[in-house]
């Protein structure tokens, strides 16, 4: 087992009829009755979440900031930073999915920062966030795990940049997880959420063995649960058992538990990001496009874990690596996630060359759990995914 | 899945050569260079932990308080409370096992309390701990999980009382877990630690299904890991893989993860406590004495989970409840934990009557996950355990 740090101070309030506890949780953090509520494209006005939250917040002065994009934009968020300063806000409540929560992590950190926040995202020397205005979340879409971690991805379209930020200061103080929000999601988004959680787990599992037996079993537990409930929750999103298990799996998949003492490999994410950049394909779907090919090309590196996955999760007695990759593909297909680039765009020719070029231009040094993924292999992986 | 709150702000620093990071972690909490170091019977002076910790704490003024008992005593701990006040201590480092850590939770809470701390443990109206001096831990014995939770059990022998305390204020700020400490433990204590972690898990698992699929799988993951490593780690405590997996399982078994969204049943603990009180048998061993009989008497209540345990953890295709209980007993025997009261005392006659009487005198209302365990059943369980 590798050395590790584990730290996660976010309080989770999980279940039915929980929003009435919002005031109690906010009052633990701030004495002010004035809060900023951040949201995205406005689905919270249609699915009833806004009404329920506002009802719970009776007695609070709620300043609204909406319009945070699916890939939250620096320019948009900076308007919220101004608002926070102007209104002297001491607590922010993010009501939304991963993008709203990621965007809010930036807002609360930038609002406490003296210099140019973009310098921090560029990792300019001496530019770091060290503090943030406290914030909490009401999750409306189980997928990214942002509700219980301290990381965020921020886009800057004018500069064609996508940058990460995070740190201990950026954990939500609390997150409210009511599985009822799944009821009103389009089937497509539920499938994306399942895929996101599944792939977050695989990125921290399909590497080489580091003998953290418990963490491996927890990862296998998330994968087995997602396989058990995946198709059913898409068909029956009002089923509390199915919805609550999906919601909790998505949170647990990226709250720091799985990475304790293991090696991880986020290269599927890194390659897949380029497909979203090029073609606007949903993030989760780009992961399902890239992962099978990556596992095939790097199967020698991931052999032991692929076999273990086949045996423990897919119930195969004597699996080959290829049999396990096919099982992963079959799971994606079962939840209506297509796994070929050509399922999403006709203009796929040249994609492998383009992505290889992008990686080379960035002076790519090391990708994969052994740091041995080459630009040529990236080319092969993308080409195999057509 | 039941509604739940999950909150655990303790930072875990896990692995080899970690104590050098003690100053960094203390400095995150206090500016003072004067700390109190609490410990137990002095094993830390023999196993090298004290020397390593003191070396890491160069530049700190370390006030020592030793002699915290295996069942930490109120009178002893109150002497530490006086010392904390006299020396104006702003940070306490507990170096020890569960008893030292439990005792330290009381010390740091009582030191911030104006009234009589015993009133708090008696739950007298208006008497509550709400704050504590910050503290961290260096764990020397994997077993109780106290290093990553906010609960403690405090004894008051003159009053023949054993009382619990806890709350958000009583989480350690950090805990250092170096599996190397297992090397120097007597085999008997390693076996006790395995049993403790195993039983903490079963108490939160062997109830009735609440459809928290992931939490069930995490519990099964801890049990499977303990079965996989149990015998081996007793034989090879210097093996880092075995030692680190035991240490992490023991922490995860009682850090709040397993109880999220499920029902639990601590009645094995409650009955077993009486055996320690009557005969001074090690806590872990009393659990192994009571559990099999309790599962037999209450097998109808626990049927679904017993069968699931047999299938998923013990690999039985079509188990009966009795087959699974026998597997649990076999595991205890494999790690040299005897499971009969008569293995520990010749004077066992009358124990069932005595324990039944004790429960009746306390106006016992509800025990077990369905609140239906009767004093007569307690009698049957203890008698069956002779």
Commentary on this structure:
2 copies of one chain form a homodimer. By secondary structure, chain A is of the alpha/beta class. Chain A folds into 2 domains: 11-180, 3-Layer(aba) Sandwich (Rossmann fold); 186-384, Dehydroquinate synthase-like - alpha domain (Dehydroquinate synthase-like, alpha domain, Up-down Bundle), CATH 1.20.1090. Chain A is built from 15 helices and 9 strands. In chain A, the strands form 2 sheets. In chain A, strands 2-9-6-5-3-4 form a 6-stranded parallel beta sheet, sandwiched between helices. A two-stranded antiparallel ribbon of chain A has the order 7-8. In chain A, α7 packs parallel to α11. The radius of gyration of chain A is 21 Å and the shape is globular. The model of chain A has no long low-confidence stretch (mean pLDDT 96). Chain A binds chain B through residues 1-16, 18, 179, 211-215, 217-218, 220-222, 224-225, 228-229, 240-241, 244-245, 248-249, 252, 257, 260-261, and chain B through 1-16, 18, 179, 211-215, 217-218, 220-222, 224-225, 228-229, 240-241, 244-245, 248-249, 252, 257, 260-261. β2 of chain A pairs antiparallel with β1 (4-6) of chain B.
Q: Low-confidence segments of chain A, ≥5 residues, pLDDT <50?
A: none
What overall form of chain A do the CA principal axes indicate? globular
| Main β sheet profile of chain A | 6 strands, parallel
Q: Pair with the most extensive interface?
A: A-B, 42 and 42 residues
CATH architecture of the largest domain in chain A: Up-down Bundle
Tell me the β content of chain A: 5-15%
Q: Quote the CATH topology of the largest domain in chain A.
A: Dehydroquinate synthase-like, alpha domain
In whole angstroms, how far apart are the ends of chain A? Answer: 37 Å
Instruction: Output the CATH class name of the largest domain in chain A.
Output: Mainly Alpha
The chain-level mean pLDDT of chain A equals 96
User: CATH H-level name of the largest domain in chain A... which superfamily?
Assistant: Dehydroquinate synthase-like - alpha domain
Estimated radius of gyration of chain A: 21 Å
Classification by helices and strands of chain A: alpha/beta
Strand arrangement within the widest β-sheet of chain A reads: 2-9-6-5-3-4
Count every helix of chain A, treating DSSP H or I runs of 4 or more residues as helices.
15
Order of helices and strands of chain A: EEHEHHEHEHHEEEEHHHHHHHHH
């Amino acid at each position: 087992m590798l050395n590790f740090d584990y730290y996660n101070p976010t309080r989770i309030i999980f279940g039915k009829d929980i929003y009435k506890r919002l005031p109690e949780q906010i009052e633990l953090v701030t004495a002010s009755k004035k809060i900023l509520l951040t949201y995205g494209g406005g689905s919270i006005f249609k699915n009833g979440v806004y009404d329920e939250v506002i009802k719970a917040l009776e007695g609070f002065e709620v300043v609204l900031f909406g319009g945070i994009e699916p890939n939250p934009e620096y320019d948009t968020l900076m308007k919220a930073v101004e608002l926070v300063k102007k209104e002297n806000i001491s607590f922010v409540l993010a009501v939304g999915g991963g993008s709203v929560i990621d965007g809010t992590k930036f807002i609360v950190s930038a609002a406490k920062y003296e210099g140019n926040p973009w310098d921090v995202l560029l990792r300019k020397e001496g530019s770091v966030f060290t503090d943030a205005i406290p914030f909490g979340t009401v999750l409306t879409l189980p997928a990214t795990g942002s509700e219980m971690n301290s990381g965020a991805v921020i886009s800057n379209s004018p500069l064609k940049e996508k940058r990460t930020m995070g740190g201990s200061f950026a954990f939500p103080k609390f997150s409210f997880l009511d599985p009822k929000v799944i009821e009103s999601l389009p089937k497509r988004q539920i499938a994306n959420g399942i895929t996101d959680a599944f792939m977050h787990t695989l990125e921290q599992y399909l590497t080489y063995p580091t003998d953290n037996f418990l963490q491996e079993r927890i990862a296998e537990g998330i994968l087995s649960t997602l396989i058990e409930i995946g198709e059913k929750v898409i068909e029956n999103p009002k089923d509390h058992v199915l919805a609550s298990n999906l919601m909790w799996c998505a949170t647990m998949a990226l709250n720091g538990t799985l990475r304790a003492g293991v090696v991880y490999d986020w290269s599927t994410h890194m390659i897949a990001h380029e497909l979203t950049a090029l073609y606007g394909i949903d993030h989760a779907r780009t992961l399902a496009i890239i992962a099978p090919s990556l596992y095939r090309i790097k199967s020698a590196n991931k052999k032991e874990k692929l076999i273990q996955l086949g045996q423990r999760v897919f119930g195969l007695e004597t699996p080959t690596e290829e049999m396990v990759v096919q099982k992963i593909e079959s799971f994606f297909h079962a939840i209506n996630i297509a796994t070929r680039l050509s399922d999403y765009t006709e203009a796929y020719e040249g994609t492998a060359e383009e992505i290889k070029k992008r990686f080379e231009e960035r002076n790519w040094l090391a990708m994969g759990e052994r740091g041995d993924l080459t630009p040529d292999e990236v080319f092969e992986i993308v080409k195999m995914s057509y």
